[in-house]
């Protein structure tokens, strides 16, 4: 009996999975409809039945990475809930460092991505933050997680890297820079991240807007 190989049907999920694989290996600049079509073994035009344009692919990549952040668990306090989500997001960004520019420049626009925004806002509102203060807290938290992850993990081409020669500076003029230069190689950026996250939780807890639980 003659066997036939059935090709997996094209879908938005399959396209986005292929797009993320390309970005992980080659970077965001490698994404195009033609490149995706080649990776999936289809004509580029057939992709438009599932994703209208490249912007939709980038928005979908944003959503796909966020999908690796676990759904919110019942936490004892809002601080614990926010800390766990921040740590989970950092882990997802560390896994897919080539997607970091998306999180630094794009908003959540798909329902799947907005669901994560909703979860954080709900945590803050139930903790007593006003809508405006909840928005500010969300924005600041995202800026910290994404910004610190960018500085820690964003890949750079070899010909774009700078290698500051701190040790060659005049120590009399830059004594503190010389001090930190001696510990740079052993500096733990994960502990640094946790220090910043803890400071942010302390600051949010002291926010005067957090007075009464939000009414449901």
Major β-sheet annotation: none
- Percent of residues in beta strands? under 5%
What's the Cα radius of gyration? 22 Å
What is the share of helical residues? Answer: 55-70%
The name of the CATH architecture of the largest domain is Orthogonal Bundle
The CATH homologous superfamily name of the largest domain equals Tetracycline Repressor, domain 2
In whole angstroms, the N-to-C terminal distance is: 63 Å
DNA-binding region: 32-51
GO molecular function: DNA-binding transcription factor activity; transcription cis-regulatory region binding
Organism: Myxococcus fulvus
InterPro entries: Homeodomain-like_sf, HTH-type_TetR-like_transc_reg, HTH_TetR, Repressor_TetR_C, Tet_transcr_reg_TetR, Tet_transcr_reg_TetR-rel_C_sf
